[in-house]
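Researcher: Let's do a round of design. I'm pasting the structure tokens now; please hold your answer until I've finished.
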């Protein structure tokens, strides 16, 4: 069951990101015409949205965002120098921090997920089309070293985490979706990726709201939104489910509650469109 598409007026030049911090609050982010980052919020689960606010910066790709139940929100972008940049605020009323530089040479937008206890995992594609990940130390401002995950990805990645389980998704050279899983918080990875049949026209978005439950969203060749899911951690997948749309970006997805997933994408008019999935 879904709520249907809801238009958020905008004039954006990137795919969006979306974060949920509980109590019905959603924050969407995208790049504006001036290459800065823009944010818009809803406090009623996406039924109504406020005005866009500008966060200064110079983005060369789409943003990524994650929020905690305590209200902290972290955003990540690729700069014009292809490095990773990070900014955060401790709650919705707090000011944003300054941009933090994290050395990298990315060839895609980043993706981010929370590992709990203040730890974050950020993933991006490198110049060699492999994926690279880096984790924070729990303070939100201290970072480890980049770790390489062999791949030949043709899109930005998506990442989800529950406990010590981390799942990565990306589009392969055959335009199908691929998945790889770590069971120790991203420290070690298997040698091979699992193929999930499909023909993607975008990077994937992913969400997980229960142990073993994985939901993925992609733009199809017909620009519609497609949804697939697994209830056994990716050992098996269902058939793709189609939702009429005319998307011009990658989708973004976030878990707002158990069995509730919010998805946003850019439309032909450069506005954002929001749809809520009720899967309980």
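Researcher: That's everything. Go ahead.
Model: Designed sequence:
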């Amino acid at each position: 069951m879904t709520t249907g598409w809801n238009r958020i007026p905008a004039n954006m030049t990137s795919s969006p990101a979306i974060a949920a911090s509980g109590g019905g609050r959603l924050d969407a982010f995208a790049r504006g015409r001036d290459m800065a980052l823009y944010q818009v919020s809803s406090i009623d689960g996406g039924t109504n949205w406020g005005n866009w606010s500008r966060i200064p910066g110079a983005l060369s790709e789409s943003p990524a965002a994650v929020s905690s139940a305590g209200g902290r929100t972290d955003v990540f972008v690729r700069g014009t120098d292809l490095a990773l940049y990070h900014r955060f605020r401790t709650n919705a009323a707090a000011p944003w921090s300054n941009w933090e530089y994290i050395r990298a040479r990315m060839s895609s937008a980043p993706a981010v997920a929370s590992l709990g206890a203040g730890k974050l995992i950020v993933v991006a594609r490198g110049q060699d089309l492999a994926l690279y990940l880096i984790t924070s130390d729990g303070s939100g401002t201290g970072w480890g070293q980049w770790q390489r995950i062999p791949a030949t990805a043709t899109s930005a990645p998506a990442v989800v985490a529950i406990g010590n389980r981390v799942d990565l998704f990306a589009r392969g050279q055959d335009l199908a979706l691929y998945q790889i899983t770590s069971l120790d918080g991203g420290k070690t990875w298997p040698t091979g990726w699992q193929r999930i049949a499909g023909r993607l026209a975008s990077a994937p978005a992913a969400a997980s709201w229960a142990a073993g439950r994985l939901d993925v969203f992609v733009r199809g060749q017909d620009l519609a939104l497609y949804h697939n899911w697994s209830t056994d951690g990716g050992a098996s997948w269902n058939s793709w489910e189609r939702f009429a749309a005319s998307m011009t970006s990658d989708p973004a997805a976030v878990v707002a509650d158990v069995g509730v997933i919010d998805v946003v994408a850019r439309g032909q008019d450069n506005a954002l469109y929001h749809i809520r999935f009720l899967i309980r």
